[in-house]
Specification:
Layout lengths: L1 H33 L3 H4 L15 H13 L3 H24 L6 H7 L7 H4 L9 H15 L7 H15 L8 H10 L5 H25 L5 H10 L4 H10 L5 H14 L2 H13 L16 H11 L4 H6 L3 H16 L15 H16 L15 H11 L1
Length: 391
């Protein structure tokens, strides 16, 4: 009975946090829309009305529904972003709450590189990679249930292509699907897995190349005028014009290189990666060791990170790219959380107290900024202190 009460209390904490996170996300998203912040609107509203372009799929769908059903396009976008994030949080919460949770899991769950990131930095809200996270969750579920019919390969190719059309940066994270096959799929041979993902990569890389080459700013004024007629605002269009500019790869690399050096990225973000890895040192204390080969998973994930390195050189949103890595790793690892009948070794009351203090300090004293911070950025502790001083 005592064990059940402790378990239920842990799940209550997780459930309460996830509900708060969705409510908080919804409020902050509304603030972004009311203040016409560019990344929440403009980068979602590219569309194919005047030809192929990058990141145009969501914008085209919203354009269609707004035009044909007389909806305000920004209202549709805000609803889409809210629902997609809520679905992701529901999937995570529903999965975790069916497992047995160790107190050490809280050290991982409340890592500032995971879900606290949406509270610490408003610029993580309204990002297209939420669709990558949702599909990756279902993809692993499919592998674990051995769902592999003759259409699976075509369906995967189709969805990978859709993700590429939503945001081209996702192609740098498709290697996680390859890793997931190596970890969870026991029926496929390695040769078959490699062949399938070579095809997926070639298709998506070719699609990305076509989109980049097709992207131009010739018709951007016409697109902007139509967006305004559908309920968009002038600020959205101004940012669309900036985002639609085609710069050469060499020019982009030069700009990013200078930015990385002047903002001391290598030191700052290396420190944040090290801090993000701390909970993984305690994996043996919250995962079912009978179900997971920790060494194998860590090696695969470490090798996998190589595939995203070009993205860190092409764009300076380093915090965003790091966050994507740690969320995808999180989705892999929660599949090895033990079932309800698993018994953890109990900590003494004294050790429990020290661990809780450590978790609070760890989760509240740092954060991972999307970009552009020259110095170490504090997390919840700084926000709480600011709130207290205001009142």
């Amino acid at each position: 009975m005592y064990f059940e009460k402790k378990t239920n209390f842990k799940k209550f904490i997780i459930l309460s946090f996830l509900i708060f996170l969705v409510v908080f996300y919804t409020i902050r998203l509304d603030q972004l829309f009311n203040n016409s912040v560019n990344h929440a609107t403009s980068w979602w509203l590219f569309n194919y009305e005047y030809g192929l372009t990058r990141r145009g799929l969501i914008g085209q769908i919203l354009f269609y529904f707004s035009t044909n059903f007389n909806f305000n396009i920004l209202d549709l976008l805000q609803i889409t972003q809210t629902i997609s994030f809520s679905i992701f949080i529901f999937l995570i919460g529903n999965f975790i709450l069916k497992k047995n949770i160790s107190i050490y899991f809280f050290l991982y769950f409340f890592s500032p590189s995971l879900f606290l990131i949406y509270i610490n930095d408003i610029f993580y809200i309204a990002r297209q990679e939420i669709f990558l996270f949702i599909y990756f969750f279902f993809y692993i579920l499919k592998l674990k249930k051995n769902i592999n019919n003759k259409y699976s390969f075509l369906i995967d190719t189709f969805i990978f292509s859709l993700l590429t059309l939503i945001h081209e940066s996702m192609i740098f994270y498709f290697s996680y699907f390859f890793i997931a096959n190596l970890i969870f799929c026991k029926k496929k041979r390695i040769r078959e897995i490699i062949f399938n993902f070579l095809i997926h990569f070639i298709v998506c890389a070719s699609l990305t190349f076509i989109l980049i080459k097709s992207n131009n700013s010739i018709h951007i004024d016409s697109i902007c005028n139509e967006i305004i007629q559908l309920g968009g605002h002038l600020k959205t269009c101004e940012d669309l014009k900036v985002s639609s500019l085609n710069l050469s790869i060499s020019k982009i690399i030069l700009i990013n290189k200078n930015w990385i050096i002047t903002h001391n990225y290598l030191y700052n973000y290396f420190l944040l990666i090290v801090l993000s890895l701390i909970p993984l040192l305690y994996m043996k204390k919250f995962l079912d060791l009978k179900e997971v080969n920790i060494k194998k998973v860590l090696i695969l994930v470490s090798i996998n990170s190589i595939f995203s390195l070009p993205l860190f050189y092409l764009a300076f949103d380093w915090g965003r790219w790091i966050h994507m890595h740690f969320i995808l790793i999180f989705i892999i690892l929660i599949n090895f959380l033990p079932n309800k009948n698993y018994i953890f070794k109990n900590l003494s009351l004294k050790n429990n107290f020290y661990l809780i203090i450590f978790i609070i300090i760890y989760s509240s004293t740092w954060s991972v900024p999307v970009c552009c911070e020259d110095e170490f950025k504090f997390g919840l502790s700084e926000k709480i202190n600011t709130f207290i001083n205001k009142n």
